[in-house]
Amino acid sequence: MSSRLALSIGLAVALVPLAACGGDDGPSVTIYSGRTESLIGPILADFEEQTGIDVEVKYGQSADLALLVDEEMAAGKRNVDVFLSQSPGAMGYLDDGGRLGVLPADIVDLVPPSVRDVDGRWVGFSGRQRVLVYNTDVLDDADLPMSVFDLVDPAWQGRIGIAPANGSFQDFVSAMRVMEGDERTEAWLAGLAANDPVAYENNNAIVEAVARGEVEVGLTNHYYNYRRLVEIPSSPTANHQFAAGDPGSVLVVTGAGVLTGAEADPDALALVRFLLGQDAQRYFADETFEYPLAIGSTPSSAVPPADFGDVSGLDFGVIGDDLGSTRQMIVDAGLAG
After folding, report:
1. With 90 as the cut, is the pLDDT of residue 137 above it?
2. Which of 1, 134, 299, 312 is deepest in the core (most CB within 10 A)?
3. What's the CA gap between 52 and 308, in Å, rounded?
4. Cβ neighbours, 10 Å, residue 296
């Protein structure tokens, strides 16, 4: 398999302590999850209840967890059975290092080829799209650009919210590097910085700022605004999709893989199957408003269709560098310290 986006070895590991969800006896599975507890925790609890398999979870950033797995396994230890990654970059890092086992065909075949590893070492179970959330009291969808590159126009001065230190923004910039090259990506980052965007900690903060009218638009993942509208139906916010194929509308897959040495563990495999089963796929569609990826699953009726057919062609390895260089590129543009 081709190389994927490598991860900076200099990343600090800041993790939530391992939370044991069951006892020491009977079947169990240990998970390192780059998905936050609020998004994945409920379905892991359902898995435990329905199967009787105890679950232990360590939550953290996907990149940091991937580094931890690599360090542990290099030391001859395997402390985890299943790795859940927020984005394919961290999963690709473990794949390149030989840390992932081959999944059985009955699991791999549950998803289309476009959202799984070509060698069967990981599968996507949910996905999200980058969008531009906007304040509907100020703007109409027709007022918004069809390309993310148009946000460098001086007309957008001081009107844009971003989360430059957030992993999803960095995934998006890495995808832009793959799709458009470093030179154009650097130029876009510099142009964006020249427009004095307002920096926020995360995607939720961006959506809230747009709703308050603090900024008019924000670059975020699609599902954050849908979740807000469930809680606050009157929120003056809506998502704008950039044109298909534009880096601003990139589709990012959340993946699951089993660590080398655990590929024959029935409890680990049961968890991955569960994530691709009907109950979990409906949860991702209807509760978190992500795109379910198992064959035959459909998104929430509130979410517009999105084609994940291009994901398999997004080879993060072609940039020939690591996630650290993407982060440095963002810093060099003056978008993050």
Report:
1. yes
2. 134
3. 34
4. 8
* Range with the poorest average pLDDT among 11-25, 77-91, 103-117, 183-197: 11-25
With H, G, I as helix, E, B as strand and everything else as coil, classify residue 128.
strand
- Cβ contact 136:225 at 8 Å: no
- Contact, 65 vs 58, CB < 8 A? yes
Which two structure tokens, joined as six digits, stand for 193? 């910085």
Measured distance CA(192)–CA(163) in Å, rounded: 13
8 Å CB contact between 192 and 333 = yes
CA–CA separation, 24 and 301 (whole Å): 42
Q: Which amino acid is at 107?
A: I
Contact by Cβ (8 Å): 33, 123: no
Q: What is the largest CA-CA distance in the chain?
A: 62
State how far the alpha carbon of 154 is from the alpha carbons of 162, 177, 333, in Å. 16, 23, 16
Q: Return the structure tokens found at 299.
A: 């998104």
* Phi-psi label, residue 171: left if phi above 0, alpha if psi -120 to 50, beta otherwise: alpha
Q: Cβ(290)–Cβ(127) under 8 Å?
A: yes
Contact 174, 5 (CB under 8 A): yes
CB 251 within 8 A of CB 310: yes
Identify whether the C-beta of residue 160 lies closer than 8 Å to the C-beta of residue 198.
yes
Distance between first and last Cα of the chain:
35
The contacts of residue 226 (CB under 8 Å, 6+ apart) are 239, 289, 300, 302, 303
CB contact at 8 A, 302 and 225? no
Find residue 256's DSSP bridge partners. 84, 123
